[in-house]
Specification:
By secondary structure, the protein is α+β, with helices and mostly antiparallel strands. It has an eight-stranded mixed β-sheet. The longest helix has 29 residues. The chain is globular and about 60 Å long.
């Protein structure tokens, strides 16, 4: 229904809706696109990217939105080194899978034998091989379960503090707003419990965040642990096996990617028994967008999995 849309992802919010609606979502390396003007959660993970009908459409948008922005100076300056001369459109190559080393990590394709997803994903791996990719299966991301547990629990230490600082900064910079801080949002919700669905939703996340006092020793330790787990996890795996990408279903790997601000592209892959779409996600290290685009575009063109949505009779 739209030629172009933008999504914002902290952990899955581009990759998940794109996969489940049979469209293409690009989650850029954190800092490749400016977050200025976007309601923040954490500057370590927040990123803005296109959700479009095709890889080419999404790449057109990516070309337009990458680059330095004085309003998000540190992150966009650091990531600007990844932007290729001549932009990203040059990587829309139909032979983009040829010679690529693609890893299939354990722990993500957990579909029972005989299910549509299991059979279709197997077929896709075979198709990629036929297109000249070297597909390496049964790879282990070191300490994956520890990493995911810590991402969930460690985030509860660092993320609330980052959220409060970021949101207060965002609100203070608005030209007009009836609220100027997280504390004022909490008070607003308490004053309008019916309109804000307080009975159903509550505001526990806000209250936990408001109770923080900035980035202290425990927050720094949690962030340091996350960085260590990421360095010894996916980053180590990709370097050891000289991978151009890993492939995973939908947004299954989003938490692993979120920790270190890593990029991904999800492409329509098929439809389940009830007609619900699913996607295949290509992801890599920071700045790997050119090769991810090559693989995603080639995969899209050889599989042509996306169908135009229709209304049921």
């Amino acid at each position: 229904m739209a030629a172009v849309t933008l999504g914002t992802e902290t952990d899955g919010s581009i990759l998940c809706p794109a996969s489940l609606n049979s469209v293409v979502g690009i989650k850029p390396t954190v800092g490749l696109t400016s977050r200025a003007g976007v309601i923040p959660i954490t500057p370590r993970q927040d990123t803005i990217g296109p959700i479009c009908r095709t890889v080419a459409d999404a790449v057109h948008v990516l070309d337009t939105i990458v680059g330095y922005d004085a309003l998000d100076a540190i992150a966009t300056m650091q990531a600007s080194k990844y932007i290729p001369r001549g932009g990203y459109m040059q990587f829309l190559k139909k032979d983009g899978l040829r010679g690529k080393r693609i890893g299939v990590p354990n722990g993500f394709f957990n579909f029972p034998n005989g299910t549509v997803q299991q059979m279709v994903y197997e077929q896709h791996l075979s198709t990629m091989r036929k297109q000249g990719a070297i597909v390496i299966e049964n790879l282990d991301i070191e300490n994956l379960s520890v990493l995911l547990d810590f991402q969930n629990n460690g985030q509860l230490i660092a993320l609330p503090a980052e959220f409060k600082l970021s949101l207060n900064s965002y609100l203070s910079n608005l030209l007009y707003s009836p609220v100027r801080s997280l504390a004022e949002i909490i008070a607003f919700n308490n004053a309008h419990p019916v309109e804000e669905n307080m009975k159903e939703n509550g505001q526990t996340v806000f209250l936990v965040a408001e109770n923080t006092t900035g980035i202290g020793a425990s927050e720094r330790e949690a962030i340091s642990q996350l960085n260590k787990l990421s360095a010894n996890g996916l980053k180590k795996l990709m370097r050891e096996h000289e991978l151009d990408a890993i492939v995973t279903p939908n947004n299954a790997a989003s938490s692993v990617l979120a920790i270190d601000g890593l990029p991904a592209i999800t492409v329509p892959a098929g439809y389940g028994k009830l007609g619900v779409p699913f996607g295949l996600c290509f992801s890599g290290l920071r700045g790997y967008e050119p090769r991810l685009i090559e693989m995603a575009y080639a995969f899209e063109h050889v599989t042509m999995a996306r169908k135009m949505p229709t209304f049921l009779p």
